[in-house]
């Protein structure tokens, strides 16, 4: 479709039908809409829709001859180019991430007299992330992981300062010692097993595998 300015000439105002071949003017003062054409007619023509109701022309339309620049259609027509559809936006995805749970605030060391963590056991509950005094006279800081317990032992200090040695042991697994055995638990993971130990002591010296230098 194209928009056309047409002259409001007496011939245009009195048009009642047929193909107009005498629309000649240099002054354009009326806008109409070009909606079609016919190249197979004896006189090829443009089909133009006017805005003067269906009582004018051919039910509100007028036909003008093609190829002879009637009503300056070749020079003064204007049209718009419609582009394709815009890009389809990518689907939005929402990812829900659960915050990690708090680290256990304590761990349990279960020491037994046999080699299988069954006989003569006693457990000690101790805080994690704090400076602990060990049974060998040094200090250590213990942290709980998902599967291991990590201890940082300060070999020359009782206040967790100076040179240190870091090591890890598996949780919920019996570890054989030179004399007896030991097993570590963190947080609530210890609840089932601790019911079988002989007695419980809280905040006693930590039994580290490392000795004072």
UniProtKB/TrEMBL annotation:
The keyword Disulfide bond applies. Residues 91-100 have a biased composition (Low complexity). It holds the Pfam family DUF3586. Residues 79-101 are annotated as: Disordered. Belongs to the peptidase C1 family. Keywords: Disulfide bond. The keyword Magnesium does not apply. One of its GO terms (biological process) is proteolysis. InterPro entries: DUF3586, Papain-like_cys_pep_sf, Pept_asp_AS, Pept_his_AS, Peptidase_C1A, Peptidase_C1A_C. One of its GO terms (molecular function) is cysteine-type endopeptidase activity. Residues 13-80 form the Peptidase C1A papain C-terminal domain. Residues 86-163 form the DUF3586 domain. Gene3D superfamilies: Cysteine proteinases (3.90.70.10). This is Putative cysteine peptidase. It comes from the Eukaryota.
